[in-house]
Amino acid sequence: MPEEPFDGRPMPPPVDPWATIDRPVPTVYLGGPDTTVPAARPAKPPPPAEEYRFGPGVPVTPAPAPAWPAAAPPRRPVWRRVVSLLSSLLTLALVIVVGLYLWQRLRPIEVESVSVAVPKPAGTRCDVTVDVIATVHTNGRSGVLEYQWFRSDAAPGAVLTEQVGSGQRVVTLTLKWAFSGVGTTIETAKINIVKPSPLQAGTQVAYRCRRR
Predict the structure, then answer these.
(1) Which of 158, 164, 161, 127 is nearest to 143 (CA)?
(2) In degrees, to the nearest 5, what angle opens at C-alpha 31 toward C-alphas 29 and 35?
(3) Is residue 125 one of the residues assigned to a domain?
(4) Is residue 159 part of a domain?
(5) Which residues contact 190 (CB under 8 A, 6 or more apart)?
(6) How many domains does the chain fold into?
(7) CB contact at 8 A, 207 and 187
(8) Would you tell me how many other CB atoms lie within 10 Å of the CB of residue 127?
(9) pLDDT digit of tens for each residue in the chain (212 aa)?
């Protein structure tokens, strides 16, 4: 069988049958057959970033201007500060004085001490009345003292009261004790402060009568 002649020319590429046909724009069907939505278009590329240039010939961004310093508050004159200080000290002193005055006025009466003595002893006299004096020292406030006398030869006495005025720092309380008959005796007199605070004091009372 005779051989076919060999053709050394290259063969052309295969022809695309769709190259010569206008392809329709792709569509997406939603709902009914008459509703069409064109395919989404590609998003726009982002704007290019801001360009910064460096080098000679490029103007330099000016530095921000410095802020103006805040104006200092005006200082008060020295004499005004001195007057303000003196006024504050005077007000404080006035408050202290008023407080002490009110405290003294409202403070209740207090007994600081008490003592008992016989200023004029009976001596050798017969049938005599002796005064037994109790001296009470207070804080000078007004109020009422409650006290009671005790005699060694009798039952306790009744509770008595004494009104004390404002500023009266010394109060005198007197017990009159009568002695009679012939003989010698040494008795004891004692006072008991009941109010405003319990306090006691006492002394001896001597009686000597020698009749012939």
Answers:
(1) 164
(2) 60
(3) yes
(4) yes
(5) 116, 149, 150, 200, 201, 202
(6) 1
(7) yes
(8) 13
(9) 555 555 566 666 666 555 555 555 555 445 555 555 455 555 566 655 555 555 555 555 666 666 666 666 667 677 888 888 888 888 888 888 887 777 666 678 999 999 999 999 998 899 999 999 999 999 989 999 999 999 999 999 999 999 999 889 999 999 999 999 999 999 999 999 999 999 999 999 999 998 75
Output the domain CATH number for residue 186: 2.60.40.10
What range does the domain containing 150 cover? 111-209
Encoding tokens for residue 106?
């409202």
Instruction: Kindly write down the DSSP assignment for every residue of the chain, as one continuous string.
Output: -PPPPP--SPPPPPPPTTTTSPPPPPEEE-SSTT-EEEPPPPPPPPPPPPP---STTSPPPPPPPPPPPPPPPPPPPHHHHHHHHHHHHHHHHHHHHHHHHHHHHHSPP-EEEEEEE-SS--TT-SSEEEEEEEEEEE-S--EEEEEEEEETTSPPPPPEEEEE-TT--EEEEEEEEEE-SSEEEEEEEEEEEEESS-EEEEEEEEEEE---
| Amino acid, res. 21 | I
